[in-house]
Amino acid sequence: MIVQDRSHSRVWDLIPLAINGTAPANELEYIESHLRACTDCRDEYAFQLRLHAGMQAAATDGRDDAAPALQRLFD
Fold first, then answer.
1. pLDDT digits (tens, 9 = 90+) for 51-60
2. Which residues contact 50 (CB under 8 A, 6 or more apart)?
3. What local confidence, expressed as pLDDT, does residue 1 receive?
4. Which pLDDT band holds residue 24 (cuts at 50, 70, 90)?
5. Is the distance from CB of 36 to CB of 54 less than 8 angstroms?
6. By three-state DSSP, how is residue 22 classified?
7. What average pLDDT is seen over the chain?
8. Residue 26, SS3?
């Protein structure tokens, strides 16, 4: 059980690196393997992926007002 908890914590910490493209290849393999078996981490990965996409859209749409970007994120 302790090994599983460490694995879960490790992946949880690596998810942002995987999403922003800075995770090393060997860590990506580890994350992908863990995600196949862990619903909680898959859900967190999906949430952070949507968050990242919303942030990217806000950064590229030329708007200075953050409210529309925040609304798109919540949608």
1. 998 887 755 5
2. 73
3. 40
4. very high
5. no
6. coil
7. 84
8. helix
Structure tokens at 66: 């953050």
* CA 31 – CA 11 distance, rounded (Å): 6
pLDDT at 2: 45
Residue 8 · residue 40 · CB < 8 Å: yes
Q: Which amino acid is at 68?
A: P
Contacts 24+ apart (CB under 8 A), 21-24: none
| Tokens found for residue 1 | 């059980």
CA-nearest of 51, 43, 44 to 69 is: 51
Q: Could you give the count of Cα atoms lying within 13 Å of 37 in the half-sphere of its Cβ? A: 8
